[in-house]
Design brief:
The protein is of the alpha/beta class and 222 residues long. It is built from 10 helices and 8 strands. α3 packs parallel to α4 and α4 packs parallel to α5.
Length: 222
C-alpha cells in the first residue's frame, strides 16, 4: 500500500498559499454560527487589510461560511479545527485553500495531500514536530501557544528544528502578538481576537475592521 503521508509534500511548504500567509502574517480565526454573516465578516477583515481567515468547523455553519467567504476571490480562506480526513474534501469543495488542525493526524495530512491543499497541523511537543517533519511538513501551528509556555517554548522547540516555521495560535492578543512575530521561526500568528463570535454575531463589523487594521500594523512591525 502506498504510504502517501511519507511522501514529500508536492511543493514542500513553499506553496503560494503559505507564501501568502507569510505575507499577511496574522490569521483571524473565526467561529461562525450563522453563515449569512460570513460575507460581511470577510469584507470587514479585508477593509482592515487582512484578506484572510481560518474558519473553524466547530459549528454546523462552518462549511457554508467558508463557501460564502471564499466566493470573494480576494479572500484567502482556510478551514480550521479539521479533525478527520473526511472533512478535508468537504472543506476544499467549499473553497478552503488551506487546512488547519489542532493536532497532528496522519490521515488528515494524507487527505490534504490527495486534495492538493496545504495542511498546517497543530503541535505542542518535540515528538509531534518529529512526526510532522517525517511526513514532509514545513509549517506547523504551535497550539495552544500561550497555555503551553508562549514565546519561551517557541524558542525552545524552534532550536532543534531550524528549518521549521511556526504559526503560534491560542492566547495571542494585540499585546503579545509582536513578541511572537519578532521570532525568526514565526511565519504568522493566528487568533480569534480580531473577529470573535461576540462581535461577529452582534454585527459589529466596524470594530472587526478596526481590529484587523490594528493587527495589520502589528504584522508590519508598527
Ligand atoms: C484556534 O482554534 O486556533 C483557537 O481557538 C484560537 O485561539 P484563541 O481563541 O485563543 O485566539
Amino acid at each position: 500500500m502506498t504510504d502517501h503521508a511519507t511522501q514529500p509534500a508536492p511543493s514542500d511548504g513553499q506553496t503560494p498559499v503559505l507564501e501568502a500567509i507569510a505575507a499577511i502574517r496574522v490569521i483571524p480565526v473565526l467561529t461562525i454560527h450563522e453563515a449569512s454573516v460570513a460575507g460581511d465578516v470577510g469584507a470587514a477583515l479585508k477593509a482592515g487589510g487582512l484578506p484572510c481567515a481560518e474558519v473553524t468547523l466547530r459549528t454546523p455553519a462552518g462549511l457554508q461560511a467558508i463557501r460564502a467567504m471564499a466566493s470573494d476571490p480576494d479572500m484567502l480562506v482556510g478551514a480550521g479545527t479539521v479533525l478527520v480526513a473526511g472533512q478535508v474534501e468537504e472543506a476544499v469543495a467549499a473553497g478552503a485553500r488551506f487546512i488547519v488542525s489542532p493536532g497532528f493526524d496522519r490521515d488528515v495530512v494524507e487527505a490534504c495531500r490527495r486534495a492538493g491543499v496545504p495542511i498546517i497541523p497543530g503541535v505542542a511537543t518535540a515528538t509531534e514536530i518529529q512526526a510532522a517533519l517525517r511526513v514532509g511538513i514545513t509549517v506547523v501551528k504551535l497550539f495552544p501557544a500561550e497555555a503551553i509556555g508562549g514565546v519561551r517554548i517557541l524558542e525552545a522547540l524552534g532550536a532543534p528544528f531550524p528549518g521549521l516555521r511556526f504559526i503560534p495560535t491560542g492566547g495571542i492578543t494585540p499585546e503579545n502578538a509582536t513578541s511572537y512575530l519578532e521570532q525568526p521561526a514565526v511565519l504568522a500568528v493566528g487568533g480569534s481576537w480580531i473577529a470573535p463570535s461576540s462581535l461577529v454575531h452582534a454585527g459589529r463589523f466596524d470594530e472587526i475592521t478596526r481590529r484587523a487594521r490594528e493587527a495589520t500594523m502589528l504584522a508590519q512591525g508598527r
